[in-house]
Amino acid sequence: MDTEVADTAMNTELANRATPAIAQHDVVNVLRALAMDAVQKANSGHPGMPMGMAEIAEVLWRRHLRHNPANPKWADRDRFVLSNGHGSTLQYALLHLAGYDLSIGELKRFRQLHSKTPGHPEFGVTPGIETTTGPLGQGIANAVGFAIAEKLLAAEFNREGFDIVDHYTYVFLGDGCMMEGISHEACSLAGTLGLGKLIAFYDDNGISIDGRVDGWFTDDTPKRFDSYGWHVLPNIDGHDSEAVHRAIVAAKSVTDRPSLICCQTVIANGSPNKAGTHEAHGAALGDKEVGATRAAIGWGYPPFVIPPHVYNAWDARDRGAVAEAIWQKKFAAYARKYPSEAREFERRMNGELPASFEARVRELIANANDKAETIATRKASQNTIEGLAPTLPELVGGSADLAASNLTLWSGSKAIARDCGGNYLYYGVREFAMAAIMNGITLHGGFIAYGGTFLTFSDYCRSALRMAALMRIGTIFVFTHDSIGLGEDGPTHQPIEHAASLRLIANMDVWRPCDTTESVVAWAAAIERRDGPTSLLFSRQNVPFQPRLPETLANIRRGGYVLVEPNSAPHVAIIATGSEVAVAIEAQRILASGGISVRVVSMPSTNVFDRQDESYRGRVLPPHLPCVAVEAGVTDLWRKYVGRSGEVVGIDCFGESAPAGDLFRHFGLTAERVVEAVQSVLARQAGARCQKRTEMRVG
Ligand SMILES: Cc1ncc(C[n+]2csc(CCOP(=O)(O)OP(=O)(O)O)c2C)c(N)n1
Ligand SMILES: [Mg+2]
Fold first, then answer.
1. Which of 120, 407, 442, 537 is 20 to 30 A distant from 46 in Cα terms?
2. The model scores a pTM over 0.85
């Protein structure tokens, strides 16, 4: 008999033994058992939080959460975010018990290679996981994004009598999330925006990894959230199911403010010797303690054996099917009355671009070509947004208090505020929360979020950029002031290693366009890319327009391409990005007058270029052709293109405060310096050839 069949047989026997009094007890304790058993089997994981939040989870999931396990993508489902993602076994247990496509076998394979139960909850791996959590504080910021998306969609699509968008965002968070700066950023904004459908549960257990938190975390959390403008429910006993239920009802009744339910809990509640201690936070309890806990909580079933009365009590499939069917009926009636709105809603939730998109992009490229403007690429970016946004209502823009610098606003931008929807968020000076909120908005569906700050502050956003890349979601990060070209603000504001370090994030596409045309193409690529994030890097300063033949235009999409080819076979290639493309072209002109033929390769996106087939890459950068790369940033990354015999003209130190022109000269980001680099590469090559001939003769 295989183990699952054996389990089922035992389940039936156990069901016959269950009494109603035991039943409710079991319905909660199954969460404790699954968490401690999965962690024990993996000998890795975090049993404490799931055991401490078991009652809260049971009340929320069985009495309040509106979802359909058979369709985890139902547009109007409530969203649930586990910001304290180390308690992943709690979420896996909930999904399994509710009837999602997550077998008990997967819980047994917790934290094993290719299981659907990775160490922390991962979007795209496990059905029903709305966002990847684990890096503390980001889940709550994602949840703020979900709630914003819900509010905006409702404002746009709901009609009298047809609330087709009407769901809650529930989030669990612990002391760790509360301590993280990003929770301060995100929750402050959530209060200002009055996100009434956001309901957060604070697992106030007084414990984090290093022990009792009194030594490092003494905020008055209720007062803190009160000052943000939240509706706060303090001192709720997190082990009193009725108290938790009443708190949720109260939270739902307040519709103009987000709610924080402060739940006092005991970590690893039920464990006789480890409850209330930090030892239970992130390690298996041990076989002996697991046994003692079983006895203490009265859970008489073996590991991973769940009696039918417990399964029956948890099974949310019928309820979920009914909930969705009611909504589908409402949506069908809506579609009869408002057919174009319904079609648009479906398009948006399916993440499809409007049919007109491609033609519009072609038009904008043609316009850029005709106008041939010398402008900053941040301005070219704004012009592109202006050109695309009227036909792309899913675009939700924003900036971290740098709207006028990032140029993320367009003429149709409407500020999102407490009492109204819109399409533009003033995030305030909250870069990290902005990035994580954008991820939440994108994950919710119905929107493409973009938002800006200075490239140097991409460091502040970085973990959220990484999470977008890990989740393969299409958030668009706009980073302007992309080099020392920003000038007088000095080294604190001048990005040096940032472009290169963003390119290192797997699944992140980075574009650094050189002119108006490349800016349009970069935006189009970012918008079309729905399976990964894009960072768009734009200049503060003007850059000249580069004329191109039609076939050259088409190649921009390939990330790197031959922008200018000399009349005779090239002796060397100069690779450049962004503002340094003009430097490369000037160097080419100087070298041509000395009889040296130069191919100029514009490489707005190394990531996209690297994905091209070998033959294309080989045509653009033939292996035998010596190379020089020029970019106003760290040199290391370019080594992979120029090799050991090539040269890189870049900056490997911090910047300086001075006008941009002086800085380019000071740091040698000039045509003259590039010319020298080309000459030395060619001289080295000639020397090597000569050496080889001598060796052959001697040999
Ligand atoms: C950004 C970040 N820093 C550090 C960690 C490592 N870490 C995981 S859980 C945790 C403590 C969290 O404390 P709390 O939220 O109170 O969890 P509890 O022990 O109560 O379950 C830490 C530091 C992390 N996951 N994310
Ligand atoms: Mg804690």
1. 442
2. yes
